[in-house]
Design a protein that fits this description.
mainly alpha; 12 helices
Length: 322
Amino acid sequence: MEAKIRPSKLQIALAFLTIYVIWGSTYLAIRFAIDTIPPLVMAGARFLLAGIPLYLVLRIGGAARPSLAEWRTSILLGILLLSVGTGGVVLSEKSVPSGLVSLLVAMVPVYVAILEWVFAGFKKVSNLSVLGLAVSTIGIFILVAPSLTGAGMRVDFGGLSLVLLSSFSWALGTVIGRKLTMPRSVMLGTAMQMISGGTFLLLAAFLMGEHRDFSFFEVSTQSLLAFIYLTVFGSIAAFSAYTWLVKHLSAGKVSTYAYVNPVVAVLLGWVILGEPVGPTTALAAFTILSGVAVLSLGNAGFELRKLSFCRIDLQSKIDKVR
């Protein structure tokens, strides 16, 4: 049996830095890209242009031919993570400020915790986890309340709902991805997911008629540069780092990118686009991120206790053998 090589702390730190900073900036890049490119066309083309060359280079370089089971996994995860997850976020930015979108995406760790709890057979969770879930939910209500009551800044409720659905789809793909048959090459698996997700996004764009009014010659320089940034850095670099982290760490730990991404996105949206950051947004951001942090502390405590129980059980078995 082949020994599993554990990644170094430096590799883990660099991978986290990549998804923390780059994904935080992609919300602004998406806003620029969809100014003159239809959202689903932009997202689908982005993933295909990143996935197909990456797949060909890896296969020519000696990567093993993927099995049918690995392709099934890649198609499923491509749809959950990219077609619904990222595609929904891109669509929502047509009507919701990029900073608010990033705050709603910060709920991913909450969804991950709920899904892991469900898949674990509804086992008892820590009080901190319950508190974190409650606080995060309150933060969501604070964020959407103005749109529901008509007070303060109004935001499209359909767009907000789409972000929440997309975040849940991303969390589902994150959790089940660890349990499915994946290619040994993380980069190859990433390329396969981007090809699958990009294909379904372009199919959705065609069904929605986005191609009818689109002309490449009408794409602005700003949108084109943002598209290139999303393709190279957002897709190849950051998504590869994310897939690698999911393979080596728990879904809960990997989803901590949701703490940092909103901070980067809100600051960039405020500084560059002039998106409003009023008291309600600030309070919602603080509440959501505090809830996510408390939830993660609860999950960390549960993992430590589980590890301690495993050690005690192992020690008792060793003592019996002696």
